[in-house]
Each structure stands twice: as structure tokens, then as C-alpha cells.
Amino acid sequence: MSARKLAMVTFQGLQLAFIGLVIAHICFGWGYPILWNCLLLLLAYVVVTVANRWGGAPDSPRRAREPLEIAPPVTGRWSALNSPADRTPSHGIHAHGQTYAIDILAEPEPGSRPAYRWLRPLARRPEDFPAFGAEILAVADATVVRAADGQRDHLSRNSLLGLLYLMLIEGSVREMSGIRHILGNHIVLDLGNGTYAAYAHLRRGSLTVREGDRVHAGQVLARCGNSGNSSEPHLHFQLMDGPDPDGARGVPFTWTGIGVPGNGQTFEAPPTVTARA
Fold it and tell me: Per the UniProt record, which residue ranges are transmembrane (predicted)?
């Protein structure tokens, strides 16, 4: 087990211990301030932060790799969110190999994606979003090393209350439950030369590949869904240096003919674009 993997296991254990300690404190009325229990939570975040920055963060000058050119994982008109073109780590943390991760949302036409609402509706069906069911493609010739299915596609969390629930409650529970519950249904491809591509939040029952399968650039792997730690149907995509996101470091990428779209930027991915040999 790598040091980063061990750190993530410790992180989850300390979070669970914190919950247990708070419950015990309430039940038994221990005679010290309840906020002292938060030291366990603080220690958990110190452990995971140090582990993912030990030896230099993936985006530090002495550790950063050259971006790998690959084909885009989708076709059609999409927009980017949490893009590494604007900042790294793109999702605020280096953990789970997501230093250079990107979220993309389908927008076939301007305004076709339901907008964020402060109050109502609190949630929407995943079928209301154009990304739901969109084909997800292999970005290069590769071997499938992970293919996890079976998690449901839940309602969106694109209202104020829905987003607060996701961030404060659901997200924390998923974090403590492990990477599988964060990614939802997902696929990891071995691209060779120590680089792996991860696709997260896929639609339940849509995976067309299994572990060990050999795939080709542009091949349909699954369909976009809303499983795991997701606010609405979208694709979370990242490259990393290992098959297990808990122990991997992020790897930068660029999509052939597109580059890396910035936050809010729309891009068109034609079906003919393929990665260079």
C-alpha cells in the first residue's frame, strides 16, 4: 500500500472516529468542550494534505509533467467547469489524483441546460439535463483496468438547498465511504507509459466494457450519468499516474483540436477527432 493510499485510509478512519466521538460525547455527557473533538477532523485534513504534497505537489515546477495530448472523451457542444486551465488543483485539492481534473456539461444549444435555481425546484430528474445519456468515448487506445457499475443516478442538486445538502452532508458521507462512492459508476483506462484516464459519474447500466478489455480511441465506453458525488449529470475526467485514484497523482492533458477549455467556456468536439499515435 502506497503512502498516499495509506493516508486516504487514515483520513477516512479519522473522519469516522470524529463522528463516533461526537455521538458518544452527546450520549454520555463527557466533561470537556465538545469542540475539542474537532481536533480529530483537523488531524484528518492535515494527514491527507501532507501526503498529497509530500515530495512536491503534482503541479509544482519540479514535479509537473508535460501535458499528454489525447482525444476528447465526448462529441458535440459542451461547457467546462472546475477546469485546470484556470487553476490547479482544479477541484481545490490534490487528493484522488484530481489536480488536473475537469468537469464538462453538455449544452447542445445555448440555454438547453437547466439553470441553477436558488429555491425551486429543489431538484430535477437527471433526464432533464442534455448530458444525461450522452456517449462517453475512449481518449486513446487503452486497456480497461477498472469498470464499476451499479450505483443509481440520483436527482440533481442544482438549487441552494440541494447544493448545501451535497456539500455539507452527502459529500461528507461519500468521502467517508471511500472513492467508489465519490466517483459513482466509473471507468479507469491504462493508456500506457504510467498514465491512466478516469471517467466518473457514469449512467447506471450503460458501461459497454469490462476490466481487461482492450479499447480504441473514439470507442463508446458508457453514457454520461449522475451517480456519485455529483450535483447534476456531467462527466468528471482526469489523467493520473496510477490506476487507484486514492494513491495517484494528477497528470496534465490537452485534447486534440481543443486544448483545455476554461471555466464557462463552450467547445465543440467533432466525432472525427482522434488522438495522435
Answer: 34-55
Give this prediction's pTM: 0.89
Condensed to tens digits (0 to 9), the pLDDT of residues 50-94 reads 888 877 888 888 788 899 999 999 999 999 999 999 999 999 989
Cell numbers found for residue 113: 441546460
| 149: Cα separation from own chain's centroid | 15
Q: Contact at 8 Å (CB) between 242 and 169?
A: no
What gap in Å lies between CA 259 and CA 277, rounded to an integer? 17
CATH 3.30.930.10 at 68-269, yes or no: no
Spans of all domains in the chain: 3-53, 68-269
Contact in structure between 215 and 142 (CB atoms under 8 Å): yes
Contact indicator for 62, 56 with CB cutoff of 8 Å: yes
Per DSSP, the three-state class of 224 is strand
